[in-house]
Write a structure and sequence with these properties.
Helix content: 40-55%
Distance between the termini: 63 Å
Structural class: alpha+beta
Number of strands: 12
Order of helices and strands: HEHHHEHEHHHHEEEEEHEHEEHEH
């Protein structure tokens, strides 16, 4: 897949620049990296410049400079580990995207061999390398969702996408059209933040709920990302709170499909099933239970049962 090849090439370029203690010229990068070696001059220049700018767009601080002792004043490039080092706990969205890429490709044996090949060629060319610098690029975030590469690529190139999305508690997926602004990892999961073209509003989508293929629409550079965007803050604000409680519900056979979809435990009963369903907001779960009518009965907790009963009394005009 072209996206995986680009991901691997970007990570190898990052590693090569990160481990070098001196500035590395384009000629040495071309000789060291397999992805560049067989390209003609024009193709190499185009691909290298694009890769360099893509890394910078992801927040990688690529420095430009030279060292006479090694490059005869030729311009070279490097990434200083102290400038690239990530905070211990908090990471920006762009830094998280870089680590996410590493998490996706690090397991490929071909990447490991090609990276080592590049380092050997750098050493042979007189460039001092520091392999210990790779410690800050070790993958600590998981990005196994199939939608990750396509959404990351669309984010970098500012290309509209369309995909099918299954909301929490729903068994079916609906089509969505999005201008993706960025990818962010929260609560151990990956989300894409962007402008929903159908709802004309900012939305957050969990990657694991994207169904099938992510398809691009239109040309790159089709939209602008808000200059004051804080991906993590937007995601925190729009995401529903994490479940903090559990409800025990009796559900008739064949009913309550949304509740069944997220039930943690199902116990078969003679007249249906007993479900254990996690929830965060009691009033929202009460609304959902009421939508199923007589097919769902609340066993506990008592506060949820009392809330459902109170709303049923109010609807029937019966005094509390």
């Amino acid at each position: 897949m072209a996206t995986d090849e680009k991901t691997e090439r970007l990570l190898n370029l990052l590693i090569t620049l990160l481990v070098s203690r001196t500035f590395v010229t384009k000629e040495r990068l071309r000789a060291a990296m397999e992805a560049y070696r067989d390209l003609d001059d024009a193709a190499f220049e185009k691909k290298f410049e694009r890769d360099k700018e893509d890394l910078r767009a992801l927040g990688v601080p690529i420095e430009v400079g030279s060292h006479e002792a090694y490059f005869d004043d030729a311009v070279g490039y490097r990434v200083r580990p102290d400038a690239f080092a990530l905070p211990e706990i908090e990471v920006t969205a762009d830094e998280a995207a870089v680590l996410g890429l590493a998490a996706r490709v690090w397991q490929h044996a071909g990447l490991a061999s090609r990276t080592e090949d590049a380092l050997v060629k750098l050493r042979a060319g007189g460039v001092t390398v520091a392999p210990e610098a790779l410690e800050i690029a070790q993958p600590r975030l998981d990005a196994d969702e199939p939608a990750f590469p396509a959404l990351w690529d669309a984010t970098v190139h500012r290309t509209a996408v369309t995909f099918d999305y299954r909301r929490a508690g729903s068994l079916t997926a609906t089509p969505r059209r999005l201008h993706p602004w960025g990818l962010v990892s929260l609560r151990g999961r990956w989300y894409v933040v962007g402008h929903d073209l159908d709802r004309e509003d900012t939305r957050v989508f969990r990657l694991s709920r994207v169904q099938g293929e992510v398809r691009t629409q239109g040309r790159p550079g089709a939209y602008d990302v808000p200059t004051d965007l804080d991906l993590r803050e937007v995601a925190k604000r729009l995401l529903p709170p994490e479940p903090t409680a559990r409800a025990t519900l009796r559900v008739r056979a064949g009913a309550g499909l949304g509740l069944r979809a997220r039930a943690e435990q199902v116990e078969t009963l003679p007249s249906g099933d007993r479900l254990t369903v996690p929830y965060a907001l009691e009033h929202e779960l009460a609304d959902e239970v009421l939508s199923y009518g007589a097919d769902v009965v609340v066993e506990g907790p008592s506060t949820l049962r009392d809330l459902v009963v109170a709303r049923l009394r109010a609807a029937a005009g019966v005094p509390a």
